Fold each of these.
Amino acid sequence: AQRVTQPEKLLSVFKGAPVELKCNYSYSGSPELFWYVQYSRQRLQLLLRHISRESIKGFTADLNKGETSFHLKKPFAQEEDSAMYYCALHNYGQNFVFGPGTRLSVLP
Amino acid sequence: DGGITQSPKYLFRKEGQNVTLSCEQNLNHDAMYWYRQDPGQGLRLIYYSQIVNDFQKGDIAEGYSVSREKKESFPLTVTSAQKNPTAFYLCASSIVEWRANVLTFGAGSRLTVL
């Protein structure tokens, strides 16, 4: 069965500190992995996806098939990064599966 | 302005009543989804549809029903059989194409049962 886990419900870091939001998945095929973000009073929106291999707002995520992980990283956190972050998995032709989410709080 | 429109934004229901949440998209997306968002549980899939007149149950379909008569519309009915309906409901859509699926979300509907 497809499953996505995010071990931290809440992650607090100080401004300028590195941040890593963990995501692990279980799936036997070749899934697509995504990070979605929900800022306060805004819609849930795509942050980045593994096949794009791009950096969005300073965030990067590398798919590690050996460890079945897709951790989200940013070297220097900003206060505007405070939001709810969801890791998600998708298999073509089927539905998306979301993790429980991690709330990132960047302290001044 | 393309996107997904959910209505109403807030809805109150008395126990025993059915309510229908509207979801309309003008993105020409084939697939549409309904998720329930609860604190600490992330997004849980209720129903999804990849083509008109067809839909599949998600993980928590009990007490809910949907229809997909038009490509643009995917309404969700929360029936009286749903034991704990108070929640935030999110509608989403996507194209169905290999390695091109990205969900676009609506603003959500918050249902409160009185």
Amino acid sequence: DAMVIQNPRYQVTQFGKPVTLSCSQTLNHNVMYWYQQKSSQAPKLLFHYYDKDFNNEADTPDNFQSRRPNTSFCFLDIRSPGLGDAAMYLCATSNPDGGRPYEQYFGPGTRLTVT
Amino acid sequence: GENVEQHPSTLSVQEGDSAVIKCTYSDSASNYFPWYKQELGKGPQLIIDIRSNVGEKKDQRIAVTLNKTAKHFSLHITETQPEDSAVYFCAASNLGSQGNLIFGKGTKLSVKP
């Protein structure tokens, strides 16, 4: 089945130690999003890629970076994780040129713990 | 920018009863309103959506209504079942711009058998 895959599902990192979260998709969608979701809160958009064009939200901290080497993969890099960065990180995709251009498909998320 | 308010934050109903979750939005340019269901440990899943040129949409036991004048939209679940228990998020988007979703804070729905 076509889907959005996130690895790992659970990640533990130390305060200040760089960490990378991975997202891959088999949907061949040209837009990929990264959201941060803290406990009992709504997902908050960090940034998204439209093909290779990177779009950063104005309030996304510089500590968060992203890479999209090809259509299928997108990475979230947290350069120096703080305790406040502990959250669920959700990857989503959409296909603006497709039959349902506005629908976003979410992966299962990676739960990040910072110790 | 857009702001989406969602109420209630928690909702408990008996199996078979109806559940209603309400959202308001601030940006009159928003024209797409999806509802997502998020089960524990999983990513959000789209359950129903509505565009601003439609006032109501129904899919089996779930329906969404939109009042553009008042800038509010609601999710209605009839004949609730225990498997409907989850967190539900509303969202708003302006498809003419980047199309980014702005989410409400979520409603935790519990359906008691």
Amino acid sequence: RKEVEQDPGPFNVPEGATVAFNCTYSNSASQSFFWYRQDCRKEPKLLMSVYSSGNEDGRFTAQLNRASQYISLLIRDSKLSDSATYLCAVGSGGYQKVTFGTGTKLQVIP
Amino acid sequence: NAGVMQNPRHLVRRRGQEARLRCSPMKGHSHVYWYRQLPEEGLKFMVYLQKENIIDESGMPKERFSAEFPKEGPSILRIQQVVRGDSAAYFCASSPPEAAKNIQYFGAGTRLSVL
């Protein structure tokens, strides 16, 4: 089993739709969780950290489910500009080594 | 406050040559990470360094690849005797000293093309 797994997609959704991605992780001792966004041929950019209580930033909501070992990202009212690959990242171990998932590709269509 | 700076942005090498990729972390960051990304694939961890120390090189190929982060100057990822399979985007990331805030900030990457 991979340390961090994501559905590669692509998820094709119409503008205005709500879309959710999940990311599962294998190390139950993981302590830090993140979502990054990566545009084509660009570097990953931090979208948000994921806290135990869940957190929201505008149209984006991240949740952590420790019991089932997954994190989720919900995007409401999708915009064309949301089209990108979304990477989850999980920190584990003594120095919280961060492992990235392979990413979920989102395409928002007009 | 400049972000993570990588150079060159693009690097073309012929098979057998050496490639040197440089990374200057964000100001105040003492942790540097190198990743490799092949087209349409995810980020593969290569190495984690702090100043003058390699902390984790579990993702580095055993041969031809090396990395350093000297006391002064940028971190360097060095690939000797490059082969076509080394063609990829190499990203550097940095994070602040506090382990609890290990959010990684990425540079724009170096795209290596081996002819």
Amino acid sequence: AQSVTQLDSHVSVSEGTPVLLRCNYSSSYSPSLFWYVQHPNKGLQLLLKYTSAATLVKGINGFEAEFKKSETSFHLTKPSAHMSDAAEYFCVVREDNYGQNFVFGPGTRLSVLP
Amino acid sequence: EAGVAQSPRYKIIEKRQSVAFWCNPISGHATLYWYQQILGQGPKLLIQFQNNGVVDDSQLPKDRFSAERLKGVDSTLKIQPAKLEDSAVYLCASSRTHEQYFGPGTRLTVT
């Protein structure tokens, strides 16, 4: 069975500085990996996804993530944080078998300081 | 294309009452999911449908929760009777291939 660990429950950065949100996963099969963002009182929005193509994945709003199989990691990065990036971020793993079962990590709350 | 629709957006009930949530997925999406998201936690899968059949309901508290997806389109999630710990946001999502698309959720408060 698959599982997701998000190593930080809360990350705080200053506006204009880099963002790093860490995610490690375990999976018995070849996984697909996703990052979702959830702004307060808003629905979940897909930031980016990895589905066995290029290991460096670019998403919306300047975010990107790199799939590292040897480290079982899928960390989310952004070169320069913006105030509007403050939100909750979820790493999600899906095993590429019949079940299409998506498993969410516990989330990382990103705060951006002026 | 229209997104995933959910109603109601908010619901307040007393414990031991019943409540139902409705979801209309994106047209053509065969897979439909119901998640429970408790404040401060990630979404937890309650039930997954493929067309109108159940694929996974291992985390659904079947003594009080039920769900159906008639005709493989709309879905209803019901809680009867509700407990205080059921206070959460209930999210519906649908997918066709690799991506899930989420509705806005229903925020349930049980008093």
